[in-house]
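Predict the holo structure. Ligand: zinc ion.
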Amino acid sequence: MTTPDQSSLLALHQAFRDELVDAGLVILGSIPGSFGRSGEFEAIIDGLNSAISRAAGDLAPEVLRFPPLFPREAFERTGYLESFPNLTGEISTFTGDDRNHAALLAAREDGADWSHFLTPTDSMLVPAACHSSYPILTGQLPESGRTLDVSGYCFRHEPAIDPARMQAFRIREFVHAGTPDQAVAHRSEFLSRSISLVQDLGLEVEAVPANDPFFGRAGRILARSQRGESLKTELVVRLYGDSHDGTAIASGNYHRDHFGSHFDIRTANGNVAHSACVGFGLERFALALLRTHGLQTSRWSQHVRAALHL
Ligand code: ZN
């Protein structure tokens, strides 16, 4: 049952989505949470990417870009299937012969389900930009560890009306693998730079302890321990007013030795590496700016426009 609070939030989501469509900033398709974007929207994303690069510049991270496909074998090692099976996306294709092809077309012609004619491939859709970096880090790290700047489209199956909850969206994140101290220091350094950046762009942001939406009963225990040990901090902007939960536009995560042990990443002295990442949800960051400063970027303050090269 929907509570009055939930239905008022749903109405706010719908209204914001409609405003974005009316303003021509996003193009709605039939898949909830999958939008086309206008040139004006993309100009904000480009501006954010430049501003984020400037904020990270002196740390000289290695820049790596990956497609949204992720090998099934690496996907299994991330532990995603254990924690978020409901958000998973897999790529299937047709591998049959002429006879199977004819049967597929006949089923489609009859309006029957034809998905069982497709076979899973070795590719999954990547759910977080940093996941593509862990197979690259396998092996021994230099003394100072490694800091990577990664970005790309990610997929999570969570259809929603809220334009800030997309199924396909871009994450820009900074990953560090090294000693426990290096990983923790990376997270706090990037979180504080991120807070300054977000505030400089005129957003009211709060850093809050958070947990991932782990699946099922075992997931509730994981969520509690993630929160209890302060492994996740979200930077939250209140898109829908003070009476509703805010929207995380960025998060900082300390994974301890989770990826280090699953991907055999070692520090210079041979210990299992620890890792941390700080990532921005680029579309959410853009939506927070639009919600705060208005839907016409030409009317944004000179300072914000200059910072984003608009
Ligand atoms: Zn990450």
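Residues 6-89+127-307 form a domain with the BirA Bifunctional Protein; domain 2 fold (CATH 3.30.930.10). The mean pLDDT is 95.
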